[in-house]
Amino acid sequence: MILVIDALNRHLFDDVLDEMFKLRKRVFADRMGWDVTVRNGREMDEFDELDPAYIVCLDDRHQVTGCARLLQTTGPHMLSDVFYDILDGEPPLRSVTIWESTRFCVDRDKLTKGRARNSVSYATCELMAGILEYGRDSGIQDIITVIDPVMDRVMKRSDNAPYGYVGKTADMGKVKALAALCDCTDERIARVRAFAGIEGDIFLDEQAVLEGRKSAGMDSLGTELETYCDAQIAAATSQHERAAALALREALTEMLRSRRNINA
Question: pTM score, two decimals?
Answer without folding.
Answer: 0.81
